[in-house]
Amino acid sequence: MAPDSADTLDGLVLDAAVIGSGVGGLYALQRLRDQLGFRAEAFDDAGGVGGTWYWNRYPGCRVDTEASIYCYSFDEALFRTWQWSERYPRQPEVLAYLNAVADRHDLKRSIHFNTRIVKAEWDEAAARWWLTTGRGERVSARYLIEGVGLLSSTNMPSFPGAERFEGQIHHAARWPAAGLDLAGKRIGVIGTGSTGIQIITALAPQAGHLHVFQRTPQYVVPLGCGPFPAERRAQMTADPAGYVARALNTASVFGLEESTTSALSVSADTRARVYEAAWQKGGGFGFMLETFGDIVVSREANDTATEFIRAKIRQTVEDPAVATRLCPTDLYAKRPLAVDGYYECFNRDNVTLVDVKATPVVEITARGIRTTAAEIGLDVIIFATGFDAVTGNYLKIDTVGRGGRRLQDKWTHGPQAFAGMTIADFPNLFMIFGPFGPFTSQPLVHEYQINWMTNLIVHARNRDYRSIDTDSAVEHQWVERCRAGAELTLFPQVDSWINGANVPGKPKASMFFMEGMAAYMQELDRIVGADYASFVFRR
Ligand code: NA7
Questions:
Q1: Residue nearest (by alpha carbon) to ligand 1 atom 14
Q2: pLDDT score of 258
């Protein structure tokens, strides 16, 4: 039973408050409440657990990381026995899994659903956070753990005239829980990132007509969907701890054999064979990470991958003019995209590609979308336009730290934080996958971060420290290290959510530790070994 939301939360006093009940928030709650004995409760705007998997119910939504990595490991019995049906499960299966975890650990009784935290203020005298809910209730907690989502604050571009539209408009990440009947409808999808390409491939066979509004073409490789592999199940069952440790001790934590071979060190024939094998196998991130080790750091190596994918697009798409518009010209250095059968969609009579760079959207009309070339009649417009990533949801909470310092002010020119987890002058506040954390898949890394931050909390509790703050010099060095590390890769050279370039007006800045998870863990182990000297403790 969830706490009764009719009761006021006013005056609730906690050891730890967790914001969010997605993949990160659920484990943070379990760890704090059940493993460490804190009085911990969680708050979520949503009506149920799941975070991103609660909100993203759009057609075609599935996880494009293999399920063996996209799951928890803390509950070893569950890790060994959970029966994933597919290698890349669909959204309902991921959401069912997260509900099963919450039920198995009786977490829902400690989660306040339909409760948004709008303000967090640090009380220096009491060494506690005061949280204000959207209903105006005030709750206090010594520790605040924010699992608010890396990709969760929606980016909804405003096109003039949207209010006149007589059909329906939906953002993919706020999909109606009851679903939508889209069969036979005239549908417009704006955006061709990982969300857009999943929606397009799912809706193309059922739409009356599908218009794809593409601004920047992207490199899409096959995912290779299919049943969950028996040999993977055997590996997970035989040695769960070893399986997880091996996955964590890589750069990207995708459960892949990351290549260390340079694309330029082999012959053109060998390269073609390696790329072809990866294409045939599918496996999404594998095309970027398992083929060659320098695709994301060397422009020349990157060119070899992009030429291969462009050739595939031209072979697949029958109309050469459409193929040309689908061919990206920039580097392959965004979050890699993978879905089965994407380019094939554009051979269908009921799918039209609209290049909104060539013919920009002018307005939304009562009947559809008018570009500079034509008015396109639509029944439904789907925004697959992404998220105010990494920082968006933190900044939506009016957070006031030590000495009245506001997070919005501290991050005006881009975020500053330590290891994706803490922020100087915001004591006892911990982020799960916040800015300058590792650039990896998430669930196993969530667990790692939550274990690390809660060990730090226990360290403070055992010594009667009431507050933990990050040394601002250490934070500064970390941010600089992340910036320098990102510059060694090609990611800063391409605009995307990875560097904040997808949201108009957002400061463009690298927001990740790009040296890989193994290096990240090494650094954090060093800090533990040095008795957490990077932190300032107060009694
Ligand atoms: P992304 O990857 O940020 O993609 C958003 C898409 O929307 C992308 O194609 C954008 O084009 C397009 N976009 C954004 N604004 C506009 C406007 N104003 N007009 C036309 N097109 C626009 O978001 P996703 O939801 O697909 O994926 C985000 C992450 O969520 C993903 O990486 C997963 O990890 C989960 P652009 O390329 O900017 O020209």
A1: 385
A2: 95
Cα(190) to centroid(ligand 1), Å: 9
Tokens 């601004």 map to which residue?
215
Atom 25 (ligand 1): residue with closest C-alpha? Answer: 386
- What kind and span of H or E run contains 303? helix 299-316
Handedness of CA 310, 314, 320, 322 (dihedral sign): negative
Q: Which residues pair with 430 in a beta bridge?
A: 145
Residues of the chain with pLDDT below 50 are 1, 4-5
Confirm or reject: Cβ of 441 under 6 Å from ligand 1.
no
Tokens of 71: 């799951």
Which residue in the block uniquely carries the two structure tokens 């669930």? 443
Dihedral sign of CA atoms 192, 198, 201, 205 in order: negative
What local confidence, expressed as pLDDT, does residue 498 receive? 87
> What is the structure's pLDDT at 6?
54
Separation CA 161–CA 155 (nearest Å): 18
Per-residue DSSP letter, 228: P
Domains of the chain, start order: 12-153+389-464 (3.50.50.60), 224-338 (no CATH)
The pTM (predicted TM-score) of the whole model is: 0.95
Question: Do residues 19 and 145 touch, judged by C-beta distance below 8 A?
Answer: yes
Q: What pLDDT, on the 0 to 100 scale, is given for residue 1?
A: 41
Question: Is 386 touching ligand 1 by the criterion CB < 6 Å?
Answer: yes
